[in-house]
Amino acid sequence: MKLFPLIVGLLMTTALVAQKSSMSDILWTEAGGYIDINKDNGGSYDIVDETKNGYLKIAFTEQGCGCYYETTIGAYKNSIGNFTTLKMDWDGCGSRKTLSSNKGLTPILPEDFGLQTFLPKSKETEYQITSAVFYLEAEIPRKGTDTRLNLSYIPFGIQMAPKNNILAYEYKQISEHGRTNFLYSYALKSMLRKISDENTAQCILERSIDDIVPEDKKLVEKLYGENKPFRGIDELAAQIHQLKTIYEIAKDIEYESVILGWDRDKARFYIREKIKNEASELSFLEFVRQLPFLMAVC
């Protein structure tokens, strides 16, 4: 009979070790497999392996161009010992960011979670834009389970179908039948940074180019016409219209972030706290100069 407690203790220890090992395996599997940093991988790795605590971060910087890739994964245990993962994947040169989970996002995010979590007005508002404007950026914790989700702008020039109203969980390049959802916007961004008059954008929308102040007019006319970024004023005006729409939507952002707690019994996040949007009101030009744009890299 004295052996019974010892056997039970050994079984519990073995189960605990197996559970920790399985958590590590789950995280590395989600990352695409273990990495041999001693091999010539064409760049350098920076790995934070705290898989025994449910955290893994892999950063890679490519030789030459210096393209940066980063994958961060957290493991969240439920009441019966199973794990849910949350992964944030970033390809800097590929202009791709993805939030994902091994369980799918809808079953683990809070109930009734969506754009209205950040923009309550969106419940009664139909925004006049077909492409997603925002994506979710997760700050996955090294300790504990409280997880911050930030409402972030998809770089302008990337057309993504939304998952919830104008909110997406990722952005990436999609190429089909010779067409792509990427429109590189360096020239447009450069023009918007250089013009001096707030009224210039409105003049473009109204196609009243002669009303633009002379120094701005020269910058605008470099953008459209033969062998220029835009074939005509209508194409340029369409881009300005889309930016104006995003600017108006931004005024409805009431909360910039949420802190999610983890409910082990339900294996689901819940909203622990909402972070108010304290950003000061900006003019249109101030806003677009802070907005990320899709830019060619390497």
Number of domains: 1
What's the SSE pattern? HEEEEEHEEEEEEHHHHEEH
Mean pLDDT: 90
Strand order of the largest sheet: 1-2-3-4-5-9
Helix-strand makeup class = alpha+beta
Q: Between the first and last Cα atoms, what is the distance in angstroms?
A: 71 Å
Largest β sheet strand count, sense and barrel closure = 6 strands, antiparallel
Question: What value does the Rg take, in angstroms?
Answer: 24 Å
Strand content is 25-35%
Helix % is: 25-40%
Number of strands: 13
Silhouette:
globular
DSSP helix count? 7
Descriptors for this entry?
alpha+beta; 7 helices; six-stranded antiparallel sheet; 27% strand
Please describe the topology of this protein.
Elements: H1 3-30, E1 43-50, E2 55-62, E3 68-77, E4 83-91, E5 96-101, H2 115-118, E6 134-139, E7 147-153, E8 167-168, E9 170-171, E10 175-176, E11 179-180, H3 186-194, H4 199-205, H5 214-221, H6 233-250, E12 255-263, E13 268-276, H7 284-290
Parallel strand pairs: 6-8
Antiparallel strand pairs: 1-2, 2-3, 3-4, 4-5, 5-9, 6-7, 7-12, 10-11, 12-13
Written description of the protein model:
The chain has 298 residues and is an alpha+beta fold. It has one domain. Helix content is 27%, strand content 27%. It has 7 helices and 13 strands. It has helices spanning 3-30, 115-118, 186-194, 199-205, 214-221, 233-250, 284-290; strands at residues 43-50, 55-62, 68-77, 83-91, 96-101, 134-139, 147-153, 167-168, 170-171, 175-176, 179-180, 255-263, 268-276. The strands form 3 sheets. The protein has a 6-stranded antiparallel β-sheet with strand order 1-2-3-4-5-9, covered by helices on one side. β2 and β3 form a beta hairpin. The longest helix has 28 residues, at 3-30. The model is unreliable at 1-21 (pLDDT under 50).
